[in-house]
Amino acid sequence: MTTPEPLLLSVSGIDKIFPGVKALDGVDFDLRAGEVHALLGENGAGKSTLVKILTGIHGKDKGSIKVLGEEVAFANSAAAREKGIAAIYQEFALATHLDVGTNIFLGRIPNHAWFIADRRQVYQDAQKLLDRLKSGIDAHTRVAELGVGKRQMVEIAKAISMGTRILIMDEPTSALSSEECGHLFQIITDLKQQGIGIIFISHKLDEIHRICDRVSVMRDGRKVGTLDAGDISVPEIIRLMVGREIGDQYYKRDVEKGEVTLEVRGLSDATFLRDISFTVRKGEILGLAGLVGAGRTETAQCLFGVTPIQRGEILVDGKAVRINSPGDAVANGIVMLSEDRKNTGLFLQQSVTFNVTIAAMNAARSRQEYYHLGCVDVGNQRQHTSEYVNRLSIKTPSIDQIMRNLSGGNQQKTILAKWLLVNPRVIIFDEPTRGIDVGAKQEIYRLMHELLQAGMAIIMISSELPEIMALSDRILVISHGRATGVLDRSEATQEKIMTLAVK
Amino acid sequence: MSFLRRFGSILGSLVGFFLLCAIFSYLSPYFLTLDNFISVLRQGAALYLVAIAMTFCIISGGIDLSVGSVMALAGCSAGIFMSSGVDWRLAGILGLLEGILLGYIMGILVARVQLQPFIVTLVVMSFARGLALVFTNGQPVSGFPLEFRWLGTATVPYLDFLPIPVAIGVIAFALAGFILRETNFGINVYAVGSNYEAAVYSGINVKRTLTLVYTLSGFLSAAGGIVLTSRVNSGQPILGEGIELDGIAAVVIGGTAMSGGQGGIIGTIIGTMIILFLRNGLNLMAVSAFWQKVIIGVVILVAVLVDKYQQRIRAKRSAMAMAE
């Protein structure tokens, strides 16, 4: 009989009301020392609100928060940090122009005399932390030179350096390759052994059983249950999250394949893509697999005209085309839903109408539909927008709504609507479901199926192996800027993909 | 390698500076003389301080358009005090206090009211220039004590070749470089300019940092105005008109990015020298002031193009490193 671990954090009866919405309704939650506690739920279920209350960004309306048995109230994030609570967000909070050591101790750099910063101490301490995490990062490196995985290590090192006992990780793996995930989980295991409690938020449910001890599921601002991770299966978690059964997550159906729509021959760019060749047929999904930074996104960017092609040929319907800009790509029927929705996919401050019609209004083929006697034909604009909002069931109060106010899934569907208006032949989806909740993911998959039925070809980039294996008809694996192999749907296994990905 | 990484961004402007000197030495026999160099450096007094102020503001992600107007206001006020009999040291300090106060107000408006630096400093640019014109009634102020003239025209005791304004510039550059590189405040200036949210989330007092940046800028501008007033021996309400553009040009030529978070004082020193010696060389060759403007425009363009090119190479290199 062991004595129970002391409760690091104990939250009870938390209410939070925003104008018009009860975001949290009597939420209880606790965290033991050395435990990884998964906090799950669809977007809007209240996870982020709870996290923001725990980190002092929002105040609570009712309820109590105890850290190691002591009642606390946070006026700001600094107060929460003082009690040992820190969060690592999806969008990393690092000053990218500064070096790693400075970032880790930013705001807390010790002075060695008067007001002169003690940089040597900073680099020394930072290096010790980084080595302890086996990160392989030099404290003098500028953050801008690091990839996503390493930036996250810097964030973790920063949190540890602040004496964090309660670490909140908000979708830490959403941008990591499987290899980097493995490293992260190793670090999480080490942190557990040091008695640090971790609140782990993720949409990738297969991770839960790898590292989590307990699972709490939220829905509509309430907690619907807390269970030991060993006692619950993924389908059960999903049922708790959405409140209903979701059968056939990926919605993969057979579609008749047609002619080759897109052929790429010996594609190379100026930096590191070398001699990539592949084809995609009508009605087919070609998955691009590989580690983060292997060259998948770069390949897509070449096809979409964002980065110039150094050598190689692109053929659409058997005819060689020149693509020097996204405008050229669109003119040839190639469109891309980028992985970075907020920066390259959307005009967040503009309306749904603006976002849906902006591409079609600039595409040579459809431009004239939107102008009447030299003026913008607002009626036509709105009619097309309404049509696609209905067709893709984009949930928005009106087509005049500002984009920022839509959920991730609906934003993604808006981008898809934008591209459907230009009648594409080939659609490139780069991480189409990143940061999107389970229900919306399924809708995106269903839409992809409809696009295939309508005779389009799809190239899909995804770091989630289960997703890419379930959806792709063929999988092209890219490693270090080279295509290392093509696997047919029937022969693809995680092992085979990973072997090619590290080749 | 680490040398290149650290100084790679200013290498271009340094090469540019030497190239410029080589060309003018060839074209004008007078260019490469000690007399000429000292006189150019002496003329640069106000620009040094303004360029330093601008470096801080731009690295923090902002800008300060008010520098020239604050110079004029501080210089004229000090002049008016002196001509009405106030001790020259006290008059100078009062002028500096004016600059500090205006800088502080700009800082509050930027940091706490969260107005855009461009707008805030544009407002003060007009406001301070107006006050300088009102106080002087649009006429130059004169009649300063001999001791005050010392500030702008004398040389450092025991170092006869070194004019006081140049010495002030050297000390200011050294101090500014030290503050930016070695103090917490300096690091925070980079942090705020690089990623404002990250700075907030790291517990940096961003409001205090920004307020200090603009206060410092006001102080430096006022100091520049007083030194220049002493050198020309009259309080000119139109003092420093357009100097903000020279300051911005010096900073940008020195490789500091307008988007904030990058750059440094060494670059600004080289940028300032390029501006000063380019103008001097063109003067020596009797190029008209009109054509000088055209040429300086081209030089700024070349500087940013070189910088852009270097950035692209660096991005390529780090992309390759990441792919490893």
Describe the overall structure:
The complex is a heterodimer of chains A (503) and B (324). With 503 residues, chain A is of the alpha/beta class. Chain A folds into three domains: 7-242, P-loop containing nucleotide triphosphate hydrolases (Rossmann fold); 248-333 and 424-503, Rossmann fold (3-Layer(aba) Sandwich); 347-422, no CATH class. Helices cover 32% and strands 26% of the residues of chain A. A six-stranded mixed β-sheet of chain A has the order 6-9-10-3-11-12, sandwiched between helices. A six-stranded mixed β-sheet of chain A has the order 18-21-22-15-23-24, with helices on both faces. In chain A, strand 7 (111-113) and strand 8 (116-117) form a beta hairpin. The mean pLDDT of chain A is 88. By secondary structure, chain B is mostly helical. Chain B has a single domain, classed as ABC transporter involved in vitamin B12 uptake, BtuC (Orthogonal Bundle). In chain B, strands 1-2 form a two-stranded antiparallel ribbon. In chain B, helix 1 (2-27) packs antiparallel against helix 14 and helix 5 runs antiparallel to helix 11. The model of chain B has no long low-confidence stretch (mean pLDDT 90). The A-B interface holds A 77-78, 81, 92-98, 102-103, 106-109, 111, 115-117, 119, 144-147, 158, 270-272, 293-295, 480-481 and B 182-188, 190-191, 193-195, 197-199, 201-204, 261-262, 316, 318-324.
